[in-house]
Structure formats: C-alpha cells, structure tokens
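Hey all, sorry for the wall of text incoming. These are the two entities for the joint prediction.
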Amino acid sequence: EVQLVESGGGLVQPGRSLKLSCAASGFTFSDYYMAWVRQAPTKGLEWVASISYDGGSTYYRDSVKGRFTISRDNAKSSLYLQMDSLRSEDTATYYCTVGVLYWGQGVMVTVSS
Amino acid sequence: DIQMTQSPASLSASLGETVSIECLASEDIYNNLAWYQQKPGKSPQLLIYYASSLQDGVPSRFSGSGSGTQYSLKINSLESEDAATYFCLQDSEYPYTFGAGTKLELK
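and here's what came out:
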C-alpha cells in the first residue's frame, strides 16, 4: 500500500523559512517523478513543483521560483520542499504526490505575523 | 500556461442519475488529463488518468473521455458516496494546471 506522510508544517512569519518533508513507502520511490501540490483554504488546487526520478530535473510554478526548492533522497524514500521568503499567499495545505497518482494527507502551512 | 476551464461549478443530482463534468483546455493536451474526487477534509483521490484509464479500485460507474482540448468525466448511477468535489488536472506540460472544481451534491 502506498503511503505518503508529510511533516514540517506550521505557523511561520512572513519572510521566514520552512522545510516540508514527505516520507514515502509502498512503492519504488526512485521509479517516479514526485511533486508538491497546494490548496489554500476553501480554494482550488495549485501545482507547486516537480522533481525527476534522480533529482536531476526540477520544475516550479512562477510564483515560487527562486524561493522554493524541491529535492529528494532516494536512499531514504523522502521528498522535501524548502520554502524561503514565505508570503501570506503561500498559506495552504501542501500535498506530496507520486506523479499524478497518489497523494499524501497534506500538511498545513500558515504564513502570518 | 494552459488554462483549464471546468464546468459546471456545481451540480445537484438524485441517486441513480447520470452526470457529466467537462474540462476544456486552452490548447491540445494530448489526453494528459486526470480526474480527482475530493471529500471535505481529505486529500484528492485519483479516479481517471490519461483521459480514460480507470484507476485501480475505482468503481466502473466512473468513466472519462475526450481528446484534444475537450474532456469529460461521467458518473453513472449516482450513489450517496459520490457527493464530493471533482477536479481535472492537465499534466501535459509544466506548469501543471487544475480545473476550478465541480461540487456535486446529492438531492
């Protein structure tokens, strides 16, 4: 059974940093592109970033480019999202996804002073 | 960026009815279209991928069709558990983009 468990969320002030982690199990992690998708409260879904099998290629939405960094550790079957210079508009539930197939339960990030 | 226009925004139907939800892409997405179901407080669950392929474990009353820029999700014989919000996603090119969602209510 595929399991994705996100952690690292919380309340953070604007301009500060936060790092999200996703522990994956139940599939061969290195065989899949991974991604982060977010959903602001009562809003729709927004793709944030994706990373290739070995981490050699990364892709970001324009609004997070230069502030967020997606990375992975295949030996640990883990995905990460380093979020710097956080803004109020980054407030959302962040989901770790296996391509488009499977989603974690999500972790809440609130950016507020 | 590819824009995904999803319709209708909301839908009310009775048990046993059949409903359809549409997604229109601003350019050809070559069947790279997925459909999700999301219930309140839960993460989205994949129903359909590559426009018409049914994800394992998803009831056969769900089906997807379409090509080019026009895609649809059909739900036959509605059951009470189908009350949810449905989203489409294009994964043809980055940035991936979602439809705004369709909230399905059961009468």
